[in-house]
Each structure stands twice: as C-alpha cells, then as structure tokens.
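Let's do one together. I've listed all components of the complex below, 956 residues spread over two lines.
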Amino acid sequence: MAEQSKSFTQQLLGFWVTFITMFKKVNTVQYPEVKEPTAERFHGRHQLNRYEDGLEKCIGCELCAWACPADAIYVEGETNTDTERFSPGERYGKVYQINYLRCVFCGLCIEACPTRALTMTNEYELADDDRAKLIYEKDDLLAPLRQGMISPPHPMYPDTNHLNYYRDEIKGSHSSQEPLEKP
Amino acid sequence: MTPEQAVVAVETVTAIIDGLEVTVPKGTLIIRAAEQLGVEIPRFCDHPLLAPAGACRQCLVDVEINGRAFPKPQASCTMPVENGMVVKTQLTSEVAAKAQAGIMEFLLINHPLDCPVCDKGGECPLQNQAMSAGRTETRFEGEKRTFEKPINISSQVLLDRERCVLCARCTRFSEEIAGDPFITLNERGALQQVGIYEDQPFESYYSGNTVQICPVGALTGASYRFRARPFDLVSINSACEHCASGCDLRTDMRRGKTLRRLAGDDPKVNQEWNCDKGRWAFKYLTSRERVSTPMIRGADGELHEASWPEAISAAAKGLVSKRTAVLVGGRATVEDAYGYSKFARVALGTNDIDFRARAHSEEESEFLAAVAIDLKTTYADIDTADQVVLLSFEPEEESPIVFLRIHRQVRRRGMSVSTDAPLASRGSKKLKAELITSLTQINGLTSNSVILVGERAAETQGALSAALELSESTGAKLAWIPRRAGERGALQAGAIGNLLPGGRPVSDSAARVDIQTAWGISNLPTVDGRSTSEILHGLGDGSLDAVVIGAVDPFDISADALNQLLNTFVVSLEISHSAITAIADVVLPVAAVVEKSGSFLDWQASARAFEKGVEDAQMRSDVRILSMLADELAAPINLPSVAATAREIESLGKWDGAKPTFAKRSASAALQGEMTLVSWRLLLDLGTLQMGEANLAGTAKHARAHISAGRAAQLGVTESDSVRITSELGSIELPVSIYAMADHLIWVPRNSENSQVIPSLGFTSGAVKVAKI
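Okay, and this is what the predicted structure of the assembly comes out as:
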C-alpha cells in the first residue's frame, strides 16, 4: 500500500511537468498549415539559375555530377547553335537530372559549379509517392523567368560575348533577343 | 635470329638517372630511359612513335656528362643517353623542377580556362601536369591571347587555337605517319597557331589520330563534342569491324550507347593509330534503321513484328526440305561465320555457302582454298621488306593500316613500292610507288620482298595466278588482303563451298571424316558448293528454292542480284533494314559488334577477340540464332553461345593433310572497247556501316572520273567539265580529273556519291562509252 502511494505521488509529479509545460512557449508548429522559414543557408532543392536576359547559366560541364558523392546528378551537354542558343558560349546542358532519392544535400555540386548555375533553394518539401517523380528534370530545376527575362532559346545580348555574361555585365534582355513572331 | 638475340646484339650505353644506373640501347632518349626506371618526366610534345621535336620544353632535366654539367637544363625528349651521363630529373634536382614549373607557367599564360567546356577535361595531360607541376594561383594579370573558336579544320575535326600548346604532335603525325601534311604551324611567337592551307582542307583519312594525341583540347572531334566526361564512360576493348587491317580499338560507351572509339595500342598491328572510318563510323549501331524485333512477311506482303519462337518456326517451315543456300557476307565474326558454315552442312545438308559478297571467280575460290588459307605473311614482314608489290590493292583505300606500315618504311628507309594500279592515287604518290603495267617490269624482287594482293584480283582472270607465280619464282612473300573484316575469318571457318572449317578441303574424304567425327554426324555433302554468283543464278532459275542471308548488300555483287531473290524464300539475319530485308520472308535481328562478343581474323590470320559492351537480351549473335533455327529444323548444330563456338573452333584445329591443288590460269585477253572502266572503293564512301555519320562523310573524297590528258583532249573536256559514262545498263555523270594514265582507261570510285558503279553500270570493270556533257 505504501508503495502504491509513493507511485501516486510520482505520477502527480509527472503531471506537474505536463501542467507547467502548458504555460511555456510552444516549439512545435502546425506543419503543413504553418510553415516556418528555414535557416538562411539551409540545403534544399537545387535550382538552375539564369542570366538577367533569361539565358541559362548551366554549360553542361558535368562538374557537379563529378563532385557528387551520391552519383545523384546526370548531365548531358550539347552544342549551342546560332538558331538554338540556351546559354552564352558554346555549350549548354541539354539533359539535367537530379535524383532526390540519392541526393544527400551535401552541397559539393554547388561548390563545383564554375558558373554559379547551380545553387540550392530553401525548399525542403521533396516527398512524393512515386520514385520516378523524384528524379527532377531540367524543367523542374530551372529558375522561373523573372521580369525582363526571355525564355531561351534566343540569341545573346547584342554586341556581347560569353565573357560579358560571366562578368555579370548583362542587366536585362534586349528587344532583338525576342523570338520572332510566328506568322 | 629471335627478337631476344637481336636485342643482345645492339650496342648499349649506361647512364645514371636520379641516382639509379640504367643500361639502354644506344640512341635511346633520356625520357625513355627514365621511363624504364619508372621515373616519369612530364611532357607534351614527346610521342614514342613520332620524331623528337623538343617543342614544348616541359621535359627539362639537369644533365652532366663525365662530370661536366650543361649550363642550363636540357630537353630530355631530344637528347640521347650517353655513357657516363648523369641525369637529374625533377625528383632529384631543384633546378629541373623549377625549370619545369616555369615552363608550365608559361604554357598556362595563354591557355584559356576552358576546362569546364573542354572535351579533354578530366583526361587532359595539361590539366594533370598543371596539378603536379603548376602553381595554385596565376601571377599573370594581363589579357590572354584570344582567337576565334572553334574553327572547323575539317567537317570532323575542330580546332581551338587558344588551347594549343604548340607541341606539334598533330603536324608531325600528319607529315610523318599519315603523309598528309595538310596542317602546319603558322606565324611565330605568341601568335603561332595550327592552321590549314586555304585551298586544301584537312581531309586526311587519319585525321582522328591528331584528336587522340593532342595533349590538350585544341583538336576535338565533332561527333564526340560535349557528349560526355571520362567518368561517364565505360570502356571496352574491341576489334575494328570495318576492314581486314585488324585494328585494336577502345570503344567508350555511356549508358550502353557508343559515344566514341579510340585507337588501341597494339605494336604488332595498328601501333597506336587507326583510320577515321574505324574511329567515327559507328552511328549505324544506333541508327533508326536497326531491326529490333523478328519480323515475318504476312499474306499482305508486309513485314510484321513477331516473337522469336514464331519467327524461328516460320523460317524453319520455309526452309525445311528445300534446296537452300547460304550467303554469309564479309562482316561476320569468326564464330558467326563458323555458325553459318556448320548450319549449311548440318542443318541444310549443302556446301552451297559463300562469304564473298563482291566480285569473285572460280580461280579465286581455288586460290583461297589452296593458297590464301596458308599464307603467313605479317605486318612484320612489311617492316623488313626490301620491296613491296601491290597487286589489285590500293592500301590507303582498302586497308589503311597496311598503308601506314608501308608508308613508315618508305619514309624511314626509302623502301621501294610498285603497284599495278592504272593511275597514281594519292596513296600511291605518298608511297612513291612505281606504276607497272606488267609484272615483268618489277625488278630485283628478292625473297625478302612482299607481294600484297587485294580482293579485286578476282575481277581479272589470271591475276591471282600471276601473283602466285611471281611469288614462287622469286621467293617473295605473298599476302592476300581482303577489304572486309570478316572475310579472312570466314575462309578459316569454311564459309565457302570448297572448304570445311580449318581449311579442310571438301573434296578430301579424310577431311570430311575429321569434321563428321567432330560434329557427330554421319554424312557431309561431298560435292564442292556453289559460289555466290552461282547461288544467285540458281535462285533465279529455280535450281535453288531458298536462301539464308547474313549481312549482304546485293549491289556489292551485281545489279540484278536482288531480282534473282524475288521468287525464293529468303531468311535475312540483319542488323538494319536493307535491300535484302525489304524482300525477305523472315527477318531475324542480330547483334552488332558492341552487343556481342566474338573475334575477327585480320589479313595476317591473327585473331582479335572482343567482348560484349551492351547487355541486351533481345540482341543475339548470328551463331546463336542459327543454332535455334537448326534446332527447329531438327538438325541441331549445338552452338548455344559465342564462347561455345570459339571452343569448338579451337578444338577442331587446322587441317594438316593434303592441300587442294590450284590450277593456274593464264591472263585473259584485254577487254576490247573504246574505253575500259576501272574502279575501286574509296575508304569513305556510301558503305552500309558508314551510314548516318555526316561529319565523317564530309571528308570523303568527291567522286571524279579520272582520265588521261590525251583522252580529255580528244573528248574536249577540262577539269571543269563533266562526262557521262554509259554502259548497256545505264550511266553515271561525273566531273573530270586528269591523271597520267593510259588513254583507254577511265577510273571512277566504285561506291561513292553519284558514282555507284555496280547498280548504275552493271559491272566493276568493263567497256563503257564516255562522252562530254
């Protein structure tokens, strides 16, 4: 009997902790109704960036794939032509896939990227119900077109070359870069 | 004298490199001697098969002889080892290490930071050596020299002049090895650059080698450009399927798709080179024309996809108790050819089998069975020959590595070459070949000379007999060099009417018993089989009912070959849709070289085996399919795999009994006609295996009709005019080139754009009418 009463007081003690906690600041959030911002440098989904005129920064060099310790990135390069230009310079990434079933979000790919084409966003909602959907294609990874950007393929800004692009001297698109209106 | 004894006889010198004593043959370069010790001196311009140039200066080392030191570091790639020499490389000498670091810094001053977009990135000697000998930070603050980039120096080779380190490997290769000095170093100083002549593009058959030996990414191949990185690639050793030279190749694949092929290193055969066809003609592997599933021609006359069991059973139903022949084609591997050979004898009970999908003769059949099968001439014989005689053989067009080996000796020691070609082709000019019109014009043929006979000898009666006669009377070594990669192996496998596997004559009962025992059957057909043309006639006139055809292009044989197949039952084993599959009753898809293992025999009859690169359960080697078909015909040939076939061929061995005799023919009278057409195939032409590779086709020679100046004057044409060449069958029209040749001859390429001689004119050589248009 004495043991029972001891146990009862201990239980009360336990409920006391619960009771006190009710008046403390709450740490949990009601995800997914409430979404807290991540840390500024959180490693989330990748993004393939664009220059200010909309041309892609990716040159398809595969250095990201090379750096990847999980073999999660697949890239195929292709030659830009005068009629179909996706990036400044000679080469662009024709196929770009990141397999998020494999990615460990280490960020080595970002360090490897020579053109700052590949960066990471803070987006972390990468769950899905189908394995195939977790292989992100280039379309899924490309940064959205912002104000003033034209969707490639289109020519480079007039009177510039790839070096002007790499030096970040392109501040927007030019009317001559607009695709010709189809009759 | 064995090679080992030869080494002993060579004078040697002894020197000390990095404190280690090394003894090498006199004349060995320091850089090579250091390699023997395992000391790797960095280098760009040095290449063991090219003459020393000392162009890049990256291999500087400290040298002293008999206690006297050179005041400055010396290029180890140009200086031979001497007795009493003490060499200190970058490993033991600070001076050498500093000199090398300095050179690296100089080279990188003008080298662009292209590595991310450069094809060489990841397998680049400059990249690697910049890591080992270079600085981490550049001290150069000026503007780098820039050039417009890239420029197409041919349709298949791109030049990026900014990246060039001026090692001159490409220009030295082109001049020394290929004999095509179409690229050179222009300008001087910082502006020095590789360039091409304005009026002569870089259209060498060997241009791909310059891409492979470029130590930076200055020369890149158009078809591999931006396709992959070294770590993406799975490499397999392969044998070249394009000709009988027998090159060792490396095939690089990414996700099962062949992206590039490189010359392998076989000192006995191709050394480190190959031709552009072997390097770049592989698009047929992934062509849309590939047959992917078995097909059966239905009642509606169209081909319909079928399952393997359906197709095999349809083929067997069409072949059973029919008089059937087999045409193998010249592209089969040894194992596949053996499969066809055994299938014909065991499952079809006939000797009507022939691998020759080209002009041929009875004289040739006998020559192959009695003489060619035993010829033992090799590349090494060419290297040491006093003289080389080319009969019906144009090495640069028909066996490019044979050409390189002859050219090497012509350049090194002025070996004399004579050819019976009617005109001096570019290849003959490079070999400084003497043109002969009769074998009696050949002087001083010794027993140490080599006579190379091409497959076109079968087109002229008596040509093979005369070649054999010449060889017998002088003791000169004879070699038969077919054009296609599979022909020598098919001969060995008995894929011809008068031979069983291993060179056993059909007519010899002991040879038949040999094979009967090995195959466990009681009777083999005893009569020599028909040749390709006889088989086609037999199919046309109804004395044969059905035919099993491998990779055969009917227009390689004759203009009407296809017509003769129309009313027969045709089973086609093909990789791609072709003229044959268009009329075939059953089409069975077979594996191409990267999808199967196997081996090819080169013209020396030495085998090169290759492994499967792609796992594709749908794609089977010919021999496997023939085995399935034989099972269905209730006459099993028991060759379930390539490996099993290779073992069976091995266990059969070669025939050591009596040889069939070869009755020499006298030469036929020269054709009487106003003009006689002569032709041969160019290396790059409309060949089936070159389909779909536009960059390669861009460097093919343009078809031109070659006539003499006298005839041109008579016809009233100049090199800006064209002529129409007419036979009874049809005509072709070509622009004219004027050559030193006999007035009654006209030469055209046999299978080039606008010049497909067999389908257009009906023959490979014969009387034609020529008129100006």
